[in-house]
Amino acid sequence: MRFCLFAALCVSLLPITSRAEVWPQEVSDLKPDSKAVFGRLENGLRYIIYPNKFPVAGRASVRLYMDAGSLMEEDDQQGMAHFLEHMAFNGSKRFAAGTMVERFQRLGMGFGADTNAHTSFKETVYKLELPRVDEKMFTEAFDLFRDDLDGMLLGQEEIDKERGVILSEKLARDSVDTRTMEAGYKFSLPESLIPFRMPIGVEETLNKMARPRFADFYEKWYTPKRAVVVVVGDVDIPLVEGLIKKNFSDAKARRGESEDPSFGKVTKGRGLQAMLHTEMEAAATEISIEVPREASRANDSAGKRREKMIRTLADNMLNQRLSELAKAENSPILEGQAYNFDMFKFVESNGIYAKSKPEQWQAALSLAEQELRRAVQHGFTEAEFAEATSSFLKGVRLRAEQKDTRKNSDLADGFVRQLGSEQVITDPDADLKRVTADLAGIKAEDCHKSLQEVWKNPDVQVFIGGNLKLENAPETILAAFRESQKQEVKAPEQAKALEFAYTNFGEAGKIASRKEVKDLEITQAVFGNEVRANVKKTDFEKNGVRIMVTFGGGKLEVPKDKPGMIPFAQSVFPLAGLEKHSVDDLRRIFASKTVSTEFAINDDSFVLSGRTTPQDFEAQCQRLAANLVAPGWRDEAERQFKKNLDALYTAIDHTDEGVMQDKVEAFIRSGDARFGYPDRKVMDERSLAELKAWLTPALQNGYMEVSVVGDIDPDKALEVISKTFGALPKRQDKKPEFADARKIAFPKDVHNKDFSFVSEITRSWALAYWPTADMMDIKRTRRLILLGQILDDRLRLKIREELGETYSPMAHHLANDTFTDYGYMFAAATLKPDQVEKVKPMFKEIGANIEKGITADEFERAREPMLQQLIQTRRDNRYWLARTLMNCQAQPYRLDWSRSLMDDFSSIKKEDLEALAKQYLGEGQVLTVGLVPATKQIEARSE
User: Fold this and answer.
1) pLDDT digits (tens, 9 = 90+) for 606-617
2) Radius of gyration of the chain (CA)
3) Nearest-5° angle of CA 37, CA 38, CA 44?
């Protein structure tokens, strides 16, 4: 995870007066989006209504934004803002304790997916995704939001019961990154409140908080003037506006209005400072050089956005350099990035970050310092500026082109973010017009001056966090920094203009056969070289096109004598670029075009994919096809992978996530080497030569299907495919069977397995697996998926709500169409170490109890949210590409699965699930797994 001192900061640092009742456009020269309806009630509560019919007509996303977070807490209330968010789900005037989740499930809304909330330093946001937009549904939603505002009951019994959940969530969030971030706050902001107001709170106050202090916080900060209701969707504006007025007009500030508390100040006059925070379980050493300063209090405006853009362009150009430096031979950095941001108009942070191996910290610090100084002293080249501006404008243009197919939830969440940062909600078309005009008048020298102005600040802070120990750390770091400053830095060299070398793949291929799948609106074609194409035109992403090229056998053809080849290939192949272009060359070449490339190894295919526009579709196809005919096989890719192995294996060996991805994933497949990771020394043996030998046959002649979905005419898509993939040499005409490679066995005669790992983070897991079957009987698979939802809900009710043991118990069914007769039901819970053995039997009991029967109510509460979700899923290009079009000529059953999806799920009966529960969820069929850390300290590493 990237570390910088202010990465998660959402806070002011100086005494402020709340301006919650002011719309940003009322004090700005920027015009708000004309589609948005802004309103304010007499009591100060505000609302935004934004009509939008995407992704599905008749739906809406609604939010209640409260301008109140952890920074409003007093010393004995640390964690209360977040705890209060939880209490909104535990009893209110209109929703008795333990009924809210179930009530909305019956309306077709899933827990977590459709009913959720979050708390940060300066905000609390309650979220609902409504499957209908009638008066009854909005009344339910606004009843809940009104109770969030002033109707929480805050029962002491419910508070006490929720403590375990809160403490479990705190444990779930504990990590070396979190600890390093908190240490960074204390170093960088010693006179501020921030280090003492982390939203999750501290155990001491979480264990002691009683109802009176909850009431004090709630009644003081939850006031109408601090509330904004956000509604985005296919709505009747007068209806929604009327219901908001009806539901919220009589809300009052129960203890008057309070100004935001003083959050301290940005410390000035410290000069050059340094600190080392050691976390030996960290994957690497992370270095940041920062200059925090008081942020501008100016209102959002066209001028302020122009200044911000200039500063961002400067960072982007510096990032171009850091990207290349990280790949250079013997480079001391694994990655690097420059950044700048301000929060709530009170603190602005500017910095440069680098990640390195611990023994290379000094060289990495020097590289970051000198590269930053090179930019400050000498500025940027015209080539760098051209790339940065082209890339920036491309992003703004794409947002404008796709504005009519923005999702309700994305818009609602975006509006909430803009409320928190006091930004005007502007129209993407207006943004494009403004940015285009601004860029026409900006020069590279403007970016240079912006960077120089920032780094005039003498209060420079050097923070190092990670797996490193140093004697006299501050003095040692400062000495290294000052030594670096003595080194002269030269101006950057002007880069040469580049043109893409792979635009001609030979004579365009001819279509040998073409078929229209009329009911699914899919065009299928086979070219003379046996390349298959599947194209579906949709209106789900305006001016957006997705492409997926599947070829070869993926995990089915991995060499058995080369363990670790899969993670090696997935990292190295995309980093290796092309024969004539490095990945940095490719970034520059396509800076002005919407072209992307991803590589993955699926269970039964290798995959090259990208996202583009109709205008850039040919460039996208050329870029992907070039990977097939001219892969780079560059040494720099292997170097980069192996430089990161220390970080990778630290995570594998010393984190719960690493153990699950490695040892547990392999164990539940009887040690199959295609899953998990080999020993470090074995991974070190993997080479570029091995990778080339393995992938070349699949790249050159493996069975291939090219699938395209989006805003593109099928004839146009096929024409471009004919000139790229259709022009390649002849390929296999069918996928090999790979019968032996499809065999994976679940562990036999094992009913419990525990894994231990060394970590100071005490987060532990209880896991459970019930072997089932593969996906090929799709009716059975769909019923197992729904059965997984029943299991998930029972885990929530028993382990979270009744016992308060864990924050996020979960369950789901997993199967695929690659490995024969392999699938499983899965359950998991994050826990304290001493809870693992207590919860394992609960998994068994809960699973076995489903055999005894499912109530009609819980069946409907599971099925209705899923049906509502499926309606949205079928309006998503990702579903059509990955679930239907991908390999659909080799696997025509995918088309049948798509046809039957809605009708089949709608026809499921609870008796179907009860029968499957009896077949698969018996107590004697479950395998339980425990992950518990041994808290032995890891040996320190130093120079």
Assistant:
1) 999 999 999 999
2) 29
3) 150
